[in-house]
Structures are given as structure tokens and as C-alpha cells.
């Protein structure tokens, strides 16, 4: 499949997927959904990819659904948005969350609607200082999707989550960092380099172990303490049988630098 609305590459362990409809602030139409889905499938199947970097081209990160794709003319049959969520948004969010490698999101500009919630499904989100986040759904009569109603209260608490979702106000990258929505703000002209630096570092680390860490932390959002202790036991058992664990311990004992294979 050739890509028209995204840029995609895998290089030295780093898969980079950049949303590329800058004229529409990288809002999603069906074709872009299909391309993102195919790229994520390739990342999952790749022996080389050990980290995914998600970003956008132009002045926006993503403005959510392309609203020009929705026919709301008087008298027209109303669209089934549930179908759109079921077919496109939910599978994408599940894939990002479950991908067995770290997913870095570099928010390069405005992130609105689903575009504001995609970064919350990623593992490490950086944002350019000029970027902003808007839970724009309430302004057009919709409900936050792409996991927003799940992530927001868990990340910022119910009071702030309700304010963000019911008021739909634009918040700055700095506010997003202070609220705990994202990992870190970086200067605009340093975003790509910082994100790549982070990605290249992670691509040399024990990917299998990192994927297990991600799994454990994600599960902690709904597990009881006892369930979590049991999950840690099970995942540690798996980690302890990995090639990278052998390499890590042996490098430590021999005072050498570990050469992790991600397995
Ligand atoms: O439908 C389903 O499948 C259900 C799922 C829904 C998921 C969702 O994401 S619903 C939420 C959809 N998104 C929005 O409501 C956000 C709409 N956009 C905005 O509010 C503003 O554009 C922004 C706050 C994001 C940025 O504002 P600003 O002033 O920086 O830029 P702008 O001038 O509004 O936009 C620039 C261009 O992008 C403009 O096109 P033009 O006039 O230059 O030809 C604008 O129309 C276009 N654009 C921005 N967002 C969208 C869009 N075109 C289509 N769909 C968009 N979402």
C-alpha cells in the first residue's frame, strides 16, 4: 500500500509515523485511517521496529475527525458515528496502547478532538511549547472518544477531567504538562530532535521487557493491588526468561555495556 496521507519509515529500530494532511490540520478521513492502520500493522510485524514515534506534519498535530466528511445537511440521513468509532478509532487506540514496544508521541501543534486523546493512549508524550490541546467534542455536541473519558479522569482527576471535557477550552502544552496529561514540553525547534533522541535510546533497550512494563502499568489502571502483585509475578517470570535479561545481568557482572536485542 502506498501512503498519501501519512509519512512512514522504519530506520535503525525506530518506526516513524507522521500524519500528513497539514492543510486540514491532519484531521482523519477514511483513507488516513486505513493508512495508519496499515502502518501500525507493519510496525507490529516488523523484526526491526523497537519503538514507534508518532507525530504530525505542518502546524497541527491532529484536529480529530475531518468534519467535511460528515454530511449534516438538513434532511440528510444522520451518520452512524458509532460505526466510525468501532471501525476506525477504537482499533487504532487499542493498537497504540497494546503495541509491544514504547510509543512516543511528539505533539507538534494543535491537538483537538480525537487528536487530543491519541497522545493520551501513547506511552511517552512530548509536546512543542506552542502546541495546545482541546477536548473539542462538546463544541459540536459529541462525546470525547479515543479513550478520552477513560484516560482523562485517571490522569488529571475527575474535577479537571470534567472541566476539560465539558468546557472544551484550549490548554497550552505547559498546562498539559502541569496537569499530568503529557510527559514533557520541549522548545518548538527541538521537538523532532528530542523525540528522535528518546526513540533512538529506547530502540537500544530491552524492548521485550519494556513492553512488559507497559503492560503492567496499563493493567494497574483497573487492577486491584493483589491482582497487580500477581501480574508482576507473571510478567517477571516472562522477563526473566528473555535473552535481554541474560545479557543485562551478564553485562552488569562483567562491567560491559549490554547489547540488547529486544528479545
Ligand atoms: O465523526 C466521527 O467519526 C466521530 C468521531 C469523532 C472524533 C472527533 O475528533 S470529533 C472532533 C472533531 N474536531 C473538531 O471539532 C476540531 C475542529 N477544528 C477546530 O476547532 C480548529 O480548527 C482548531 C482549534 C483545531 C484549530 O484552529 P485554528 O484557528 O488554528 O485553525 P483553523 O483555521 O480552524 O483550521 C485550519 C484549516 O484546517 C481550516 O481549513 P481552511 O479554512 O484553511 O481551508 C479548517 O477548516 C481545517 N480544519 C481544522 N480542523 C478540521 C478541519 N477540517 C476538517 N475537519 C476538522 N476537524
Report on the structure:
This protein is an alpha/beta fold and 263 residues long. It folds into 2 domains: 6-203, 2-enoyl-CoA Hydratase, Chain A, domain 1; 207-254, Lyase 2-enoyl-coa Hydratase, Chain  A, domain 2 (Orthogonal Bundle), CATH 1.10.12. It contains 10 helices and 10 strands. The protein has helices at residues 30-45, 81-98, 114-117, 148-156, 158-167, 173-179, 191-202, 207-220, 225-239, 243-254, and strands spanning 6-11, 14-19, 51-56, 60-62, 103-107, 110-112, 124-128, 132-134, 171-172, 184-186. The protein has a 6-stranded mixed β-sheet, sandwiched between helices. Helix 1 runs parallel beside helix 2, helix 4 packs across helix 5 (158-167) and helix 8 runs antiparallel to helix 9 (225-239). It is globular. It starts with 5 loop residues before the first strand and ends in a 9-residue tail after the last helix. The model has no long low-confidence stretch (mean pLDDT 97). The chain binds ligand T3D. The site of ligand T3D has 23 residues, from helix 2 and strand 6. Ligand T3D is lined by residues 24-25, 27, 63-68, 70, 81, 84-85, 110, 112-114, 134, 136-137, 140, 142, 145.
Amino acid at each position: 500500500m502506498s501512503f498519501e496521507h501519512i509519512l512512514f519509515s522504519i530506520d535503525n529500530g525506530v518506526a516513524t509515523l507522521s500524519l500528513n494532511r497539514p492543510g486540514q490540520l491532519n484531521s482523519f478521513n477514511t483513507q488516513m485511517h486505513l493508512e495508519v492502520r496499515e502502518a501500525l500493522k507493519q510496525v507490529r510485524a516488523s523484526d526491526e521496529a523497537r519503538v514507534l514515534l508518532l507525530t504530525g506534519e505542518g502546524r497541527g498535530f491532529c484536529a480529530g475527525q475531518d468534519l467535511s466528511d460528515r454530511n449534516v445537511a438538513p434532511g440528510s440521513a444522520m451518520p452512524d458515528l458509532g460505526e466510525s468509532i468501532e471501525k476506525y478509532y477504537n482499533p487504532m487506540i487499542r493498537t497504540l496502547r497494546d503495541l509491544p514496544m514504547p510509543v512516543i508521541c511528539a505533539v507538534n501543534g494543535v491537538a483537538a478532538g480525537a487528536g487530543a486523546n491519541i497522545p493520551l493512549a501513547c506511552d511517552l508524550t512530548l509536546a512543542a511549547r506552542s502546541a495546545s490541546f482541546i477536548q473539542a467534542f462538546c463544541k459540536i455536541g459529541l462525546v470525547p472518544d479515543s479513550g478520552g473519558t477513560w484516560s482523562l479522569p485517571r490522569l488529571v482527576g475527575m474535577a479537571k477531567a470534567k472541566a476539560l471535557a465539558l468546557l472544551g477550552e484550549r490548554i497550552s502544552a505547559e498546562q498539559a504538562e502541569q496537569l499530568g496529561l503529557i510527559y514533557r514540553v520541549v522548545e518548538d525547534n527541538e521537538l523532532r530532535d528530542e523525540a528522535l533522541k528518546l526513540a533512538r535510546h529506547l530502540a537500544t533497550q530491552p524492548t521485550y521487557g519494556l513492553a512488559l512494563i507497559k503492560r503492567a502499568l496499563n493493567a494497574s489502571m483497573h487492577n486491584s493491588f493483589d491482582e497487580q502483585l500477581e501480574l508482576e509475578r507473571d510478567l517477571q517470570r516472562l522477563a526473566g526468561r528473555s535473552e535481554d535479561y541474560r545479557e543485562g545481568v551478564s553485562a552488569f557482572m562483567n562491567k560491559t555495556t549490554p547489547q540488547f536485542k529486544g528479545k
